[in-house]
Amino acid sequence: MAKNKFYDFLNNKFMPVMGRIANQRHLKAVRDGLISTIPFTIVGSAALILRFPPVDPSKVGPDSNFLMKFLLAWNTWASNHGDAIMMPFQMTMALLGIFAVIGISYSLAKTYKLNELSSVGMGLMSYLLVSAPATNGTLSMTYLDAKGLFTAIVIGILSIEMLRILEEKEIKIKMPDGVPPAVASSFAILIPAFILMAVFYGASLIIQGATGKLIPEAIMAMMAPAVKAVDSPFGVFFFATLCQLLWFTGIHGAATVGAIQQAFLDQNWMRNAELRVAGEPMQYVYTTPFWSYFVIIGGSGATLALVFLYLRSRSKQLKSVGKLSLLPALFNINEPVIFGSPLVLNPIMFIPFVFVQPILGVIAYFIVKWGWVGKAFINPPWTTPAPIGAVLSTLDWKAGVLVIVLAALAGVMYYPFFKAYEKQLVEKEMGEEQESLENAEGSVSA
């Protein structure tokens, strides 16, 4: 009875609410806008890998092997050419706020059917007005990186909402018929441009006068408690569990949760990168790479180990799913497992599918927090196999070992539930085979 009430709650209350959240236009714009920055972060991450080889010269003895000699030579080369190596980083991740506000402005403008090019220009202008004040003709770059990410989100949304209102009120210059469309569009955006400039620059001057802080600095101060709450064992457990509850009801949990937590995780790993470049201690554990490689090992639900269990299953269905899912799972894609098992609305697999992932996340959080494994400051593509991605993101070989241990632990936790589900499917398959055999014999007798 209690189980039925719980499933009723998931289907009738939880699922509709989270479905509406997943489709909320502003959250979708933030999610899609941040996704659009991925190519730039990968380029910047490649520069970081080149710049910081995984070796500490002070801990390598004179009688080192070939690998250590290679790493030392790499370290010397990287130190001598640091500025040149880091140029891609400076042109990508160090300007992340610019790319983010462009992506968010474009995505939101598209949902309102506004002119995307003009909207992006207005969003970028507004962001630069509040984030990069010029001194003696030189723009300040301090808040154009990850420190300006939350500002990019706020300004990207507010600027497009203002443009939408101005468009609805037809507050614009209308050119006569016959004027080329490009010219007409330029004049149409002129009045909104002045209004946005007055609003955002005026707000920036007022906040600077009242607090002595730029808007990005003020926003960072306001968001500090939320950032701290997310970067905690509770934050890891909450988001990992919420993701799996959504998956269990058939909603794409990673995409929905990502719309809420992605800005925090991106900000965290990029701030780690900036601190690493500056030679300062990294601060954040719960980052985008942490989620990709230590939490969702093989895909949502940490199902890589489950795939290996399926490969040796006595159930024909599960064995087939395991064979089909192995290659995608190695690259953190596990829709074949989720829908082929199926794990969605499967009462036998509910406990491990929902709770294995958050348990692994909390364990990994403390191991990284205690300094046993390095913090992530590089973001390889999320499809990188988890042990390799963990090593690349931290430049710490122990991270790969940790992922393998966590995957094995996931297998241990999945095993009893897998066996119970396997038994049910084997009995069903045997019954179907017996029924098919009896039908065949009856046909022959007839």
From TrEMBL:
Gene Ontology MF: a single term = protein-N(PI)-phosphohistidine-sugar phosphotransferase activity
Which residues belong to any copy of the PTS EIIC type-3 domain? 10-417
UniProt cross-references to InterPro entries, sorted A to Z: PTS_EIIC, PTS_EIIC_3, PTS_IIC_cello, PTS_Sugar-EIIC/EIIB
Per the UniProt record, one Pfam family is: PTS_EIIC
Task: Give any Gene Ontology cellular component.
Answer: plasma membrane
Locations listed in the record: Cell membrane
GO BP terms in the entry: phosphoenolpyruvate-dependent sugar phosphotransferase system
Q: What does this protein do?
A: The phosphoenolpyruvate-dependent sugar phosphotransferase system (PTS), a major carbohydrate active -transport system, catalyzes the phosphorylation of incoming sugar substrates concomitant with their translocation across the cell membrane.
Q: What is this protein called?
A: Permease IIC component
Organism, scientific name: Orenia metallireducens
